[in-house]
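Q: C-alpha cells for this one, please.
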Amino acid sequence: MALYAIGDLHLSLTADKSMEVFGPAWEGYVDRIGEALSALGAEDVLVLAGDTSWGMSLEEAEADFRFLDQFPCKKYLVKGNHDYWWTTAAKLHRFFGEKGIHTLDMLHNNCFPYGDYALCGTRGWFLEEDAHNVKVLDREAGRLEASLKAAGERPILCFLHYPPLYQGYECPEMLRPLEDHRVLLCCYGHLHGHAIRRRLEGRRGGTDFALISADYLGFVPKKICD
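A: Here is the predicted structure, written as C-alpha cells:
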C-alpha cells in the first residue's frame, strides 16, 4: 500500500487535443502514463492534481476516465483550470455509477483518510487585479479551508492544482490555511515547460512543497508515503 500523486495528465482520447504538439517532452505521453500506472496495485492510492482530461463534458471525458479506471488503484481527482467537464459531486457520482467506473472520486470540499493522514485539496487560484479573480480566489480559499477542517486531528497532506508559491509570487490566501492547519506536505501542478524553472520546492515554515506536474515527473507518479 502506498500513496502517489501526479498532476496535469491532459488526457485527450476523445477531445483530440494531444499534448504531443508541445514538443518531445510529451511524446508518447499516454503510453508512458499507462506504463507507470500499471505498476500501481489495487491497495495503492493516487491523487490526480488537476487538468486530468481535456473533455468539455463528462461524456467527452468518459474515454479518459475509462483509461484511468482500468488501473485498479483508488484515484482522487482535484479540479484543474482545464477540467471543463467538472461538475457537482452528485452528478459525477451518478455518471460514474451509470458507466461502471469505480476507482475515481472527487477531492473537493472534503477530505479522505489515508492511514493516519488526511488527504485534502482544491484547485487554488492566482490573483489578478480584477474583481472576478478576487471572488474566485476567495471561493478557492474557502474550499481549501473546508477541506482542511474536515481532516479533524489527522496530520494533513494537501494537493492543489495551482502553485501557492513560486519564484517571484506568493498567494497568502492559500498559504495561510496551510500554515494554520500545520499541513505537512503541499503538492501542486500547473507549471510546464519553461515555467517549471520558477518552481519552489522544499520546506517553507512547517510545510514541504513539491511540484508534481506530469511532464516534470516524466509521467511517473511521485510516491508520497507508504
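A few notes: The first helix runs from residue 29 to 37. The two ends are 6 Å apart (CA to CA).
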